[in-house]
Structure formats: C-alpha cells, structure tokens
Amino acid sequence: MEQFDLVVIGSGPGGYIAAIRASQLKMKVAIVERYKTLGGTCLNVGCIPSKAWLDSSEKYHESVHTFASHGIETGDIKLNSKKMNERVSKVVEGITGGVAYLMKKNKITVIQGHGTFKDKNTLTVNGQDVSFKNCIIATGSKPSNLPGVTQDKERIISSTEALKLEVVPKHLIVIGGGVIGLELGSVFRRLGAKVSVVEYADSCISTMDADLGKELQKVLTKDGMEFHMGHGVTAVSRSGNEVTVKAKNKADNKEMELKGDYCLVAVGRRPYTDNLGLENAGLKVDERGRIPVNAHLQTAVPHIYAIGDVIQGAMLAHKAEEEGVCAAEFMAGQKPHINYNLIPGVVYTWPEVAGVGATEQELKTKGVEYKVGKFPFLALGRAVASAEKNGFVKVLADKKTDEILGVHMIGPRTADMIAEAVLAMEFRASAEDVGRTSHAHPTYSEGFKEACLAATENRALNI
Fold this sequence. Notes:
Elements: E1 3-9, H1 13-24, E2 29-33, H2 40-45, H3 47-65, H4 81-105, E3 109-112, E4 115-119, E5 122-125, E6 128-137, E7 141-143, E8 156-157, H5 159-162, E9 171-175, H6 179-190, E10 194-199, H7 210-222, E11 226-229, E12 231-239, E13 242-249, E14 255-260, E15 262-265, E16 269-271, E17 304-306, H8 317-331, E18 345-347, E19 352-357, H9 360-366, E20 370-376, H10 381-385, E21 392-398, E22 404-411, H11 414-426, H12 431-435, H13 446-455
Parallel strand pairs: 1-2, 1-6, 2-3, 6-17, 8-15, 9-10, 9-15, 10-11
Antiparallel strand pairs: 4-5, 5-6, 7-16, 12-13, 13-14, 18-19, 19-22, 20-21, 21-22
Helix pairs in contact: 1-8, 3-4, 3-6
C-alpha cells in the first residue's frame, strides 16, 4: 500500500491549490476526485460556467439594446442558445484540463473515485487502500433545497441544471435573492426570459451592505426583473411544462401564486460530506453539517484538516484557496495566517457588486464610530464615456483614526476593483492614504479614490 505525505479529498479550488502548495513544499501528494474531471463545483458547475454564461448573455443583451446608441447598426440579432451553451462547455473543458496539467506538472498523483475513511490514516478508494500522514478534506458543497420542495431536475431545478439549459425559459421563477439566484436570473433575463425572484428576506444579497442590495434591486428592476421580497415559499408544484410557486407575504400573511415554465431553487448550499466515513476517522459534523476545525484548520484529529465549504464561513472559492495554502504550509511547519475579515465577496451581475470588511450595519451594531465616503459612478468620466453610470463606491472609515474599515461597491468592474480595497485594508491604510494615491485617469478605480476623499473631511473633487 502506497503512503503519501498528504492526501487531498476533492479537487475544487481549495483542494487542488492545497495539493500544489504541498507539492511545492516537497511533500508526496495525492488528490482524490470522484468525478471524471478535476476542478470541483466551481470549475465544472459553478463559478466558471456561470461567468461564461454571464459574459455571453451580456454581449447578446448589449447587441440588442445598446449597440445602436454607440452608432453600431447590426441588423437582426438572433440568439443561438445551443451554441452559447457549447461555448460555455468549451470554456469549462479548457480550464478543467488546465488543472489536470497542473497536477502532472507538480507530480501529484490523481486517484479517481469516491474516497471513504477506513481509519484515521487510511482512505479506501475503489476498493483500494490509500495511506497518508496528513489529509485535507476539501469536498465542497452542493445546492440546498427547501423543505417539502422536490427538484425534478427538469423544470424544478438547481443551479447545476440551470447552467446546462439549452433553451431560454419563457418565465423563470427564482426562489432566492442571493448571489446564485440573481446571477443566473440575470443571465436568462438578458436572453429574453421573464424572471421573477421570490425572497424571504426584505432585501436581496442580504449578507452584504444594505445599500448594495437596494441599488442592485433598483437596477435589475429597471432591466425588467420582478421582485417579491419578504415572501416565504409555501409550495412548488409541476403540471406538464408548467410550474406553480405559492408564497406567503410575511407582512400581511397574504398568499400569492406565480406560474412559469421553470423554477430555479437557489436558497444556498450545504457542505458535501456524504458517505465519507468520517466516523471511522473519529470525526463528527455540527448541526449544519460542517466539520469543526481550529484556527489552523485542523479537525478533532490533528493530522486531518478541513477547508472550504465543509467548514464554517463564507462559501467562496478564493476563501477555500487561502485555506488550502494555509493548511499545507502549517503542516510543513510554517506559520501562515488568514484574515477572514478581508475575504472579499462579489456578485457577478451587471452592474457587478463587491464588498470587503465591515458593513455599515455591522459597525452600528458594534457601536463603532465611523464616517462614510460615497461616490457615484454617474460623476466619473470613464463610467460616463462607457455609458456605465449605475452604482457607487462606499468607504467606511474609523471616525478617529481614519483607518478603512469596509469598502462596498456596485458598478462596472467592481469585481476587479475590490482588490485594491483589500490590499489597502491589509496594510491598514487610512482613507486619506488612498485619497492621496495617484489613480490613472480616466478609470473606474478613480471612484475608490474619490470615495476615500469623501470620507476624509468631505474632500471629493468631482462631485
């Protein structure tokens, strides 16, 4: 029986990055993956295909609705959703193939099959035992469901099936106003579907700063998306090709009914720890199915680590990557650290939404004295020139020290812009530090500088 210094279960962003870092640190590494392709949910049925769909649908939407205003006459525009789907598949194929190449490059053994713990130092995969000194559980998550709702994977679907639809729904009912629901809802709205969002909370993307959710809902409503906030779903049924969703208003207890041809259930995700044999290794999960870990990502069995969606915290690919590197370096004797406050969150709708650090609501709850700097893209030259005037940049800074405590953006390319905010906060920059830093003109990133100036004695220059 071959023994490895490290065996990683799961080849998603957390798992394959952990394997690569461990190999760089001279460990003998194997990675176990139950599916035919590497990359996990993110690369196969999550982050990558959804962003490919978002990009293609945005191009189609622009060609139909905005090209003429730029002086571009295109004639009749036709949508070939099957070909669009094929493009997405090729994108996924290319990136997952890239992960396979990285495994070979870093001399990491890939073991295909479902891994189950035989004991705390052995995995069983396809009837064969694999021995390890250390193990990282990186099995990710899968879509959650609502109690009493049956997903038939044909008309009542999860994000996995939605990403593979070859037809555009006539009326897509989305249950859930979070990241997944709004991103996929945006895709099909751009392609011509009627989209209705049913959300139990009173605002969409409710885990982010409240101003972002308000602005995003306003923009998406203008684009034709329909919102039913504060409604709890009571029933979902199907008759032939028609889906019926019933929901009750929290405020007045009145029930409403929506009928469409597809229903996307996007109410979050849950840790995927099914049939891992955790008990054989002396491990248990908590009430939410997560594996408890300490600050070093060690489980109750110190040489077994867990990262990503199977542990507490936001279910984000980049969080999992940081944890994979952290776990590999810690077991190699280094002293890595992750600042979870500086893990950014992004929603890839258009406009894009991004945030890092404390929200205004959190600062109020904690009683922290703060000041706010806000700058609208409407006042930014590059945004006006590009006809991208929706949104704003919002900076929260400590009232006494001026240290940046949180940055929240909604607008063009904020998914990329948020990186500057993360870097500034990593070095504990003040709002004035960023405000005095030269930003190229004209760029979208000037919006961050202006918001920082606005937080510094209201010194914004272009508003």
